[in-house]
Amino acid sequence: MTPLVRSREEYGREEDARLAPYAQRSAASRGRLHPEPEHAYRTAFQRDRDRIVHSRAFRRLEYKTQVFVHHEGDHYRNRLTHTLEGSQIGRTIARALRANEDLAEAIALAHDLGHTPFGHAGERVLDELLCDEGGFDHNRQTLRIVDLLEDRYPDFRGLNLTAETREGILKHGAFPHPVALPALFPSPSLEAQIADAADEIAYLNHDLDDGLRSGLLAPAQLDAVALWREARATAEARAPRAPEPVLRAQAVRALIDGLVTDWVTASAGRLAQAAPPSADGVRRAPGRLGGYSPDVERRRRELKDFLYRNLYHHPDVLRMTEEAERVIGALFRAYRADPRRLPEHVRARFAEDGEARAIADYVAGMTDRFARAEARRLLEVRV
Ligand code: MG
Questions:
Q1: Distance 241 CA to ligand 1 centre (A)
Q2: CA of 240 to the centre of ligand 1 (A)
Q3: How far is the centre of ligand 1, averaged over its atoms, from the C-alpha of 362 (Å)?
């Protein structure tokens, strides 16, 4: 008789039957830095996903800027909704390619935890301020959060995630890190490549959507972008008399579907040709096997360049960026000048992590609104 509760071992056998040979099996994980007993019915990657969702850093994503600061309107994406859109797209791609959906999901849910308040502007300032201490990078910061900064467990710092989730977070390159980095291969796992692609598909589309909604992008400007023109034509052909907000939503819908479908189809073709016999076969491939067809790749680049030129470098967005740089820089310098301004738990880490790094961890972890409130309280900076 089939037992009522599906055990982890049973689930592992289902993975063997369901997943492609090049998918990462949960039972074949390289494990955690601190060995722990396995769970009765959740796989290692399902536990990673749950640990990420239960973390404080995950909850703070709600009040971190994607492109539009949160007080500009309730309908714009923030880092939390961006993360959820990206992880959902990642799960769709992973299922279609018979990759490990749980691993792709865990990586996608974690991928933005290390973002500073106010988006990339905050990251640039901290990188300059820490130039003598190894700099600052949001992917590396994500790894610091999951490896060191979350304090939920009695026996270790961090969330003690599996090597595969950490590999997906790490993305590229080795750097000084207080605990052992996951082994680096020429390419990331298929699941990490999926999480990367899903992140980009999510932000290209929702930034376009938010850009149009805000009026920072004018519909006529977008006529120059082939992918958008086609998506818009699809939407108009389907519902020619639909009101503008519905047409925009349908165009975004068509664009997401087009990008996902091309990524899945082109990747499936490359995977079939290379036929990696295992998950490590994908990692050892000299280049990424996941990706778009050459034609869509070219047009994706065109869309991305368009957004960089017209949205991310829009004067209104840059104004927010300058304000962010002012707030983050001033906070960091104020704490450096007088560490008594810091909460005790930050000062307690000076000895182990170094003063500058501990302060950067604290500032980077702030939400936009907390950073503003601190700047007002400490510095009488008007924000
Ligand atoms: Mg992202």
A1: 34
A2: 33
A3: 21
Centroid of ligand 1 to alpha carbon of 139 (angstroms): 10
- Looking at the structure of the chain, the number of domains it has is 1
What spacing in Å lies between the alpha carbon of 64 and ligand 1's midpoint?
12
Whether residue 107 lies inside any domain: the answer is yes
Q: Quick check: 87 and 198 in contact, CB under 8 A?
A: yes
Sign of the torsion angle spanned by Cα atoms 266, 239, 207, 373: negative
Give residue 158's Cα distance to chain centre: 18
Query: Cα separation of 278 and 69, whole Å?
Result: 43
- State the residue range of the domain holding 241: 44-316
CATH code of the domain containing 162: 1.10.3210.10
- As a whole number of angstroms, the distance between CA 313 and CA 305 comes to 11
pLDDT in tens for each of the 383 residues of the chain?
667 899 999 999 999 999 999 999 999 999 999 999 999 999 999 999 999 999 999 999 999 887 776 566 778 888 999 999 999 999 999 999 999 999 999 999 999 999 999 878 888 999 999 999 889 999 999 999 999 999 999 999 999 999 999 999 997 667 788 899 998 899 999 999 999 999 999 999 999 999 999 999 999 999 999 999 999 999 999 999 999 999 999 999 999 999 999 999 999 999 999 999 999 999 999 999 999 999 999 999 999 999 999 999 999 888 888 888 899 999 999 999 999 999 999 999 999 999 999 999 999 999 998 999 999 998 865 55
State pTM to two decimals: 0.95
